[in-house]
Amino acid sequence: MKEIRNFKNFTRSLILVILVLSMSVTSVSATTALKVDLVKYEPYPAEIGQYVTVWIKAENIGYSRADDVSVELVPSYPFSLDTKDQAVQNIGILPNEQGAVFEYKLYVDENAKTGVRSIEVRYQDNKDSVWMKQEFDIRVGSDTFDSKGTLQLEQIVTEPEVLKPGDTGTVTLTLKNSATQYTISIDGKEYDTNARVRSAGLSGSNDIIVTSDPYQETGILGPGDTIDLTFNIIVADDAKDETNHLEFNVMGSSHSYNNNWDIPIKVDSSGIKIIQTKPLRLEEDKVTLEFDVVNTHPGTLSSVSVKPQAEGIEFSPAEYFIGSMDHDELFTVEFDATVVSNDDSTSKDLIMTAQYKNGYNQHEAVIDGLVLTIIPDKPKSGNGLAIFGILAAIVVVSSLIMYRHKKQQQ
Questions:
Q1: Which domains does the chain have, with CATH numbers?
Q2: What is this structure's pTM?
């Protein structure tokens, strides 16, 4: 019996330990909301006996803010930091859907061999949470390829063309190998003119977050070939009306062919504007209301529709669908308004709502404070004249009868 009791106590203790451990693991995974990426390193490849600068991006992809973000770079041979206190960098609070970039300068040992080497990055979102870790590769050595093709940024396409605060969109960047022939001779040596894209990443700004990972080893571009690289972006809800500048970093065949391009992204909060063009007066229980609808946004807006609302008033059509509108395009809409209620109100509050899309983003513009004045019915002037004519005829007939009657008496 004693052995059975000891076994039961041991079982209970074991279950309790498992529950505590599972709760601990769940708590850690729930609070860990960071994602780290190797944005770029220069020069590429890292040169033996020289310094290489490494940029690490930490992004909060969780639903709540991270209260105490730290990133630590743990180099291993052939990389080293000048002092160990440079390894850990702390930025404190990092709101959700925002990121921060950490810069490190590593020395490449002069006896290093060419090839691919790794660095370890550790990170935590709170000083009490566990350290997570991830490894990234860095190529060491002289130029790995002798290709002489040169990459150029041929086109920038933003969808939608101009974003509004809170919008999501895409940026597609087209790279082209500008070479026009397949080989080139330099100092008596012949080289191919292929261009290589080792990595390509887009860095965000204060108001724009890039949610796509950098491209890695996208392949070889022959002379005249192009490649499209698309990145997803999110504009902050409180973004200002201005042109944001993102950084497009491309690592090519060697550090001599690396490029950094400035990518302008326009943000503008303007949209659909509704303008009253006729008096809001309803006579004889019916009136035609007229409004001008204008697209004040710098880009094209789609699925534009306008809808009026007022208590006790029926509108025809109930909603006016316009469709796509270019910048500064104006469209006039008309609604027949009819009183359908039995109250004696002489005014009704009128609300005009415009719905539209900027890319895939749904937006709404509401104009309130409008008052529809209701004029009570008045007798028609035609009826008054008819009554007056009848009365006049009666007077004339009566006068004739009285005249004849007097004449007969004489």
A1: 30-142 (2.60.40.10), 145-268 (2.60.40.10), 272-375 (2.60.40.10)
A2: 0.62
